[in-house]
Structure formats: C-alpha cells, structure tokens
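Hello forum,

I keep getting stuck at the same step: I have a sequence, I want structure tokens, and every attempt I make locally crashes halfway through. Rather than fight my setup again tonight, could one of you with a working pipeline run this one for me? It's a single chain of 131 residues.
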Amino acid sequence: MLYDYECEECGHEMKDVQQSIKDDAFTKCPECKKDALIRIIYGGTYASIKKEPTTIGQLAERRFEEGFPTMPDGRPIQKIEWKKTDMVERAEKRSHEKKERRDKNEAKRQKLNKINKMTPEQKRNYIKNGD
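Reply #2:
Ran it on my machine without issues. Output:
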C-alpha cells in the first residue's frame, strides 16, 4: 500500500511511501528527528464475494461456469434451465451495481480532490475531527 506521512511538529511530508499494511507506521520524522509522524491512508482496494445462487437458473449457470455438466441432483444442465427472467434480473442487477460503483468512485474522487486541496493544517484537523 502507499501511504503519506506528515510530521505534526515541523510539517514535513513524505509522499507515496510503499509499505505493507502489516508494517508498523513510521513515527520518527527524518527532518526534525521527533516522534511526530502520522500516517495518512488513502486509496485502497476492495474485495468481492460471490453470493450463493438463489434460483435454479443461477445454480445452473454457476455449475456450468465451474465446468460441471450436471445439476447437484444429476440432471444434465440444459440451456432451458437458464430462464430468461434470471438473465434479465441478472443484467438489471449488474447494471444497478455498476451505477452504484460509479457513484461510489465519483464520491471518493471528490473527497480525495477536496483533501488534496487542503493545507497541511487543514489535513491535520480533518484527520483529528473527521471534517
């Protein structure tokens, strides 16, 4: 992960420091030599978890994608199992999720732009007070 650091004493900034999330944060400022560095976290990634199928069509599609030729009860997977309504529901859901992701990413971008325009003093206040 990339982190920024800022010294609360002298205002020295360290940008884009590569560290593992498991690593301890740096505390000693290389400029003033005081233990006054604070780690500023930004960006990041997310993980996606695939939900269990809730319809026969979803189960058939999942098993087909995983390479199974049959349903759990032994019936062969046929195209008829993939009901049109399941496909429409899935397409609508994907469209809705895509819009939600776009809106969420736009909100993140706006927040990061706001933070990037702040002075070091404003950033410290933002971190301490959350606003």
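The chain has three domains: 1-45, 47-82, 92-117. If your local run keeps crashing, start a new thread with the error log.
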